[in-house]
Amino acid sequence: MSLVTDSPVHSSSSDDFAAYLDSALDASSSDASSEEEEEEEQTENQDEDFKSMRAKRCKVESIEEIQGSTSNGLIEHNIEASVNVDVCTHPGSFGNMCIRCGERLDVESGVTFGYIHKGLRLNNDEITRLRNTDMKNLLRHKKLYLILDLDHTLLNSTQLIDLAPEEVHLITQADSLEDISKGNLFKLEYMRMMTKLRPFVRAFLKEASEMFEMYIYTMGDRAYALEMSKLLDPQREYFNAKVISRDDGTQKHQKGLDVVLGLESAVLILDDTENAWMKHKDNLILMERYHFFASSCRQFGYNCKSLAELKSDENESDGALGTILKVLKQVHHTFFYELQDDLVDRDVRQVLKTIRSEVLKGCVLVFSRVVRTTLQALWKMAEQMGATCLTEVDPSVTHVVATDVGTEKARWAVKEKKHLVHPRWIEATNYFWQKQPEDNFTVRKKQ
Amino acid sequence: MFFHIVLERNMQLHPRYFGRNLRDNLVSKLMKDVEGTCSGRHGFVVAVTGIEHIGKGLIRDGTGFVTFPIKYQCVVFRPFKGEILEAFVTMVNKMGFFAEAGPVQIFVSNHLIPDDMEFQSGDMPNYTTSDGSVKIQKDSEVRLKIIGTRVDATEIFCIGTIKDDFLGVINDPTTA
Predict the structure, then answer these.
(1) Cα–Cα distance for residue pair A395/A132, rounded to 1 Å
(2) What's the complex ipTM?
């Protein structure tokens, strides 16, 4: 306590100062306490600075003395002060410094949020806290989260050298990069790439942004992701610092919601690859792949001509994005206006499941001559959409799904005037969230 | 804080630059090399302001390159803990906001934003007081206090706070 003599408060043991302090404290005790808090905060900031800390403790002590509290209270106060010094839980770090107290942190902990800003990391508790506060904010604006994939979902890209001979003419038709919002086919010279936006994507983003807070989440690298977000969102109104690339994920070859600052119960995902979202299949709306360029068809093992080679494209309004937008609207409407329980307890995954189970409601399916491996997937898909699947035909059956007209079940279907459809009917129904006209999916005789 | 100091550097020069413009070449190479770089000790080199002394060149064995020791004056910028800085807001999100003062990247987390300011999402995310009188958004100018710094080889990171008297917005782009 050699410092005590230096302390300015302590040196004034004269009565008039004590009286002045007393009256000041009485007059505005709340002020005084906030001042004390501030003092403690400052102490926190200068934790290495032991000298000043000790001096401040003496100050606190002397105020206590003047107030005439017991020695017990004095000790308590001291303990409180010293606890406050190391109370910062370090909720996250920026450039290895705590974002709350500025202290240098040597151990790297928590999840990296490189897509928001370089060097930013957050701890799990802080992520939970942010998700919960953000959720309230979002629900007040009647919005949910929407995670969008890039390739094959919103657009299709190809390397220039991979262009098929019939596609080379596209290079001259590319839209100017000066007015991005008007074009949909771009040539990115320095990346040696061509990118085609999916028809309807601009209207889709505009309408979806009113119902959702949107993220981009792609397996491409960071530079590519940012470049694509510029094409999709030239005004930067949708994806402000919400572009996540494979460099930002926490697991290889997997996409995860752990780097998304949103509660899982309010997130919808739009992606063409189911396997990327192993842990979050319930949030996923599977998209039909968009193959504009031939290289992208080849990549997935299709031998057919690409849309570009055929000089055609998806339909503007009732293409894949238009259809999905309707589903999104339905989910959004159900979530906010049709559910009865408390807003916070609602789960968008449940809503999605219910809507999906309405698609094929009342249909009874029987499979015939479908390869075992695909059968399982189709069976599950059909059941998720609300259909009943049987192994043998009976009078309740409405559809026979077959690859060949010659099988016993297929012949039965024709005789009983039941629908005989190709397995693609189920896949198409799954993509469009609507029972597809059976006549478009008839089974042809094998040659 | 800015400092005007004298620093030293050994410059290597290719023989093709020798001739009557040797000195000019050295100086322009020096500027290209040091302006905009960071050092943990001195901070960010803003500009070279003058040459104090150029020492005798030394031919390096085997290469023909010549090394000149140069003493030069320059303005450096280095933030300190407790310093008050004025900065431009570059990004606002639910975690807080990022601001820039020249080369310095500052993060102000929402723990260090006054409690009466609330985050508003949208195409122009911002922090606003309940009465709407004060608004922090992209391109706002704020006065903040540095509570932690780290200087890397190329970047300076800082943690800032506006939870203190006389800190916060000093210039709003929407009203200007």
Answers:
(1) 52
(2) 0.80
